[in-house]
Request: fold
Amino acid sequence: MYKLDITKAAGKFVRKLDAKQFRQILSTILKLREEPEPHDSKQLIGNPEYRRVDMGEYRVIYRIEKDTVKISVVGKRNDDDVYRKCGTCSCSPGYGQGAI
Reply:
């Protein structure tokens, strides 16, 4: 089983969600501990080190580092702001180049 490492920004975003969305995202994040590359995850174009997984109207951007899943950003699925925020975690080279 993989460890989880969640950035403060991602944790803060998740804590502000309504109960239903909170459970949905938390469930997906916890499943990444057992299966860090689920069939519905995709590599980011321009930076294959990072992956994304969508659930409902939200998206989680993360990377796998040895035995740890590092959650970088959680945000609205159709909001380019997810990739702008991701720029602070160095996973944005694909932003604006078809990464979505």
